[in-house]
Amino acid sequence: MLLMRWSIAFPGQPVPGLLFVENLPILGPLFHETIGRWAPGGIVNGELYNMLGAMHGTIMVFLGIVPLGFAGFVNFVMPLQIGTIDMAFPKLNMWSFWLFFVSGVLMIYSFFVGTGPVQTGWTMYSPLASTTTLAVTNVWAHGHTWWLTAMVFNISASLLGSVNVITTVINLRAKGMSWMRMPFFCWAMFVTSFLLLLAFPPLEVAALLQLVDRVFGSSFFLPTGLMEGGQHLDISGGGSPLLYQHLFWFLAHPEVYVLILPAFAILSEVIPANTRRPLWGYKSMVYAAMTLGFLSFLVWAHHMYLTGMGTMMSTYFQITTVLISVPSVILLTGLMISLWGGSIRFTPQMLFASAFLPMFGIGGLTGLPLAFTFIDLALHDTYYVIGHFHYVVAPGTIFALFAGVYHWYPKITGRIMSDFLGKLHFWPSLVGMNLIFAPMFIQGMGGFHRRWYDGGKYFEQTSSASNWVTKLTSDFFGIFGMDVPNNLLGLNVLMTFGATILALGQVPFILNVFLSIKGGRKANSDNPWHCTTLEWATPTPPPHGNFTFEPIVTRGPYEYSVPGCTQDYLPQWESEPGKAATAPASTPAPVAHH
């Protein structure tokens, strides 16, 4: 991301430190084999920019947010919250992990092959993706081949994981854990599992068919009459590029909610615990999550307005796209009202959770204009779309993931992460995120294309526009002696400055995670945040089999500040206020038989 932003802000200028890294004894040859050969003289060229763009999107979505937001949290937290000893199929879980691991190795390996990694965007649209670098006869030298192979492994891993989660939630809930006593975290992950199970197979089919097109010369996505270098391609033809787009987006819009629902799941635990209030509108939020999951399968073609669909079809997708904003607003509203009148603890996890709410709101509101064909025709493929999407998943979903790490870290390690380092992580992250993505809306409405590796330097009719934001940016950098132009190009420098702040802001988090394992303050109990859900009833960290007594659920998941109770929280496993339900001496603890 930083290399891309440098190329956009300072086109044609060497990246600071790139040549220095290339001359290092051990890292140098490795760096030259991956990125260095595409950056002659330390200057990012168009090819490298396209590679970085495609791999940034792929790695962040399929190797970053989904594995952490869904697989990581659901495997640790969900079995504890429903009171079971493990996932339903532990061996299937291990298969899921190793398939994911192999997909990551194959994806990163594509940096080392002859053509370099993919250059056709994380969407891999045919026919471009099916014909790029076809002159290279060694099929294993194609980054595209490795990308498609890695995605087949990645999708298979997600499918196995989703089956496991669905089975576990349905069959292994503890005694007394009825559906409406189940924490919203489990509900959101349950819906997410169905999205993965139903939406990922079309993309797996698309990846396999495109792989066959590239390797075996078929034409599932290649139409007749394609030309390259002035000559007709030697293909059978007859395929449909639009078929690939339909298969891809039938996954990729539910995929957006695969990214968002785990964020809401985490915040539904963090916010009540740090406001000491019940989750407002719990049942409404459950029904909203299910509605969101259903509607997410009916909106995919709003990504395809530019393909020339008829007015009847575009009207249908406009209606469903506007409708899907309703359950999203219900979820956001439930979390926001949960803050009202609360006794808020501004822990690091609460800072990230509270910042998520307005940031996700900005992402959602800026997405509404894109639902309409007329507006989308102007804004499609501009920085406006990039700003909208990233406000949802960067200061949105990723902030929620950080909140989850801070929240459950004591249960995982028995230690509490440093508050000071946590706040040192939060503020640069908040400032950096907004400096990167807010100016994108201004550039996008000015017509900036999302794939200009030179940041629009050679498109003066677009980039020469100015306004009060560009003037403020120019004056700000002028204080430090930098000559930043008073036009839309100047915002590229501002966004690169923001990206640098964001990158540096992650250093305290990395230090915090690893240093706190041994040096963090010890948790004073198994339930240091005084929470109400079942995961806090286990020893810290949870042993094999999780629970030392048979958990029996007697109430709902968010009983905070209950009138007449001597403490401000009433855990699900307590039989009566103030008295914990422990197993009789003669009752053996449950044992995991696998």
From TrEMBL:
Residues 1-554 form the Cytochrome oxidase subunit I profile domain. Residues 575-594 are annotated as: Disordered. This is Cytochrome c oxidase subunit I. Residues 580-594 have a biased composition (Low complexity). Keywords: Electron transport, Membrane, Respiratory chain, Transmembrane, Transmembrane helix, Transport. InterPro entries: Cyt_c_oxase-like_su1_dom, Cyt_c_oxase-like_su1_sf, Cyt_C_Oxase_1. The gene is ctaD. It comes from Prosthecobacter algae. It comes from the Bacteria. The chain crosses the membrane at residues 59-80, 92-112, 146-172, 184-203, 256-273, 285-305, 317-339, 351-375, 387-409, 421-442, 493-515.
